[in-house]
Amino acid sequence: MSLLSHYNESRPAISFELFPPKTEEGMEVLCDNVRQLCEFKPSYFTCTYGAGGSTRGTTLSVLQRVREITNLPVASHLTCVGSTVAELESYLAEAVAQGVDYIVALRGDPPKGTDKFVAVEGGLNYANELVEVIQGKFSNLGIAVAGYPEVHQEAPDAKTDLENLKRKVDAGADIVVTQLFYDNIDYFRFRDRCVAAGINVPIVPGILPVTNFKQAQRIASMCKAGIPYDLEKAMNATDDPQSQFEIGVEHARQQTINLIENGVPGIHYYVLNKSDAAKALLDGIQMVG
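Given the sequence above, the corresponding structure tokens read:
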């Protein structure tokens, strides 16, 4: 099933993002959570990897296990960081051989300790170049790229950021998955700007439930995502972990309901290898666009 076809269904497509665990015990916990998440009939799972490709092998192992458990399509993240074109093509060939269906094509963050991305000799500078490589030799792979409702932290302005996104889509991306956001207005504004710019692929919102406020603040600061005043106030009013969990889950639940009511093609959940928050927020929601 093609990546784009998931978003042509009457029901919004749900997908979940995982990351490679560091231990075998962590892998077993991940697999158990994947089984629980299948209750919500996801269309596919994705898996990230460590900085500089440090866990690419584990990423493929995770995706292989997920396919065995779910019999669903799987997507591997892939960045340009620290890799030549030949190395990227080698990974793509291995991914295809292991049954990976889709690629989330990213430039990637600058290596730790630096604040500017610099391609290695023989490497790539931008995600649109990675999309072109995939299209050139691995055209059967579906391709997702990232979009930034609140503007990429390195972009000088929103217009430039949108132009960069259009280059990725024009190079052959099937869908755009957004960075996390906590105010749906930011997503709707971004979606409208994409349409006005001629970006005519599904713009899939990415949601990360706030279950621990300090962690959410750290993650949001890394990607320059704003936390709404009411959510911040409610979270700051309690130190109780369970109360923070419930507040965050309810916020993500209301985000989800509002997004579905406003016709999103699907929702991508950053679940951090856990199922409890996703299960709580999705419980009882009718996925009807």
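The chain is about 45% helix and 15% strand. Try to locate this feature in the token string yourself.
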